[in-house]
Specification:
Strand order of the largest sheet: 3-4-5-2-1-6
Distance between the termini: 6 Å
CATH architecture: Beta Barrel
Largest sheet: 6 strands, antiparallel
Helix content: under 10%
Radius of gyration: 11 Å
CATH class: Mainly Beta
CATH superfamily: Probable tRNA pseudouridine synthase domain
CATH topology: Thrombin, subunit H
Shape: globular
């Protein structure tokens, strides 16, 4: 598992995560919690190119403070 960023905001069924990675490659991917459980899917990438934000549509009941992806 590779860390992609920290969750900085939660609202409704969405999480916002700050990342340093090439965020375009993450669009549509499933992201996971520290416990390797699926948290949701990346539905949007926005913000500055250097350190973009990810908008994640989360699954019901799943929580995480750091998001990961499978390598």
């Amino acid at each position: 598992m590779e860390e992609i960023g920290k969750v900085i905001s939660r609202f409704n069924r969405f999480l916002v995560c700050r990342t340093k990675k090439k965020a375009k490659l993450l669009l549509g991917q499933t992201v996971y919690s520290e416990k390797k459980k699926p948290v949701g899917i990346v539905v949007d990438v926005f913000g500055p190119v250097e350190r973009p934000y990810l908008k994640v549509l989360k699954r019901d009941g799943d929580q995480a403070s750091t998001l990961y992806r499978k390598q």
